[in-house]
Amino acid sequence: MKLQELKVDKTWTLFLDRDGVINLHYPNDYVKNWSEFYFLEGVLDALQKLSHCFARILIITNQQGVGKGLMTDEDLKHIHAEMLKEVRKHGGRVHMIYAATQKVEDDFWKLRKPQIGMAKQAKKDFPEIDFTKCVMVGDTGSDMRFGKNAGMKTVFVGDDSKITEDEKLLVDFHCDSLADFAEQVGC
Question: Does 139 participate in catalysis according to the annotation?
């Protein structure tokens, strides 16, 4: 099956991971302030195109750097405010950002991916979401597990040698980047 065969329209919701999909991901580190945030090539144009295809675009991101004390909630809010400003400036839109800021061992509410707490929050905020008409785009096995756990279609972006053979079984589609996804889905 090709991505175009999903027949995405304004009844669909797009869930996006942040680090590694929208912006540069620092292995073993976090984007702790706006000066460390770099959009990946083609992302701003892709978000503009995807805004015309999907009813909602939601970012879901694990950000335990806050829980570890490497940055504050205010730092994260500032990064997201600046990111959204740039997205809007380029004609794109993001309806909501959900961030799981607790450390892995402190995630009592099961918000962190691959748990589906952030998907449940999104459903509460947007009751019209139908998880069978959702796409999760991410660059980790955890993102793919999140998508499958919530009943979504999954799209892995980037080098799939970063995920295990078992995690590859959770991938419905593979794209080189978010820009590649926007092109393949037909936006």
Answer: no
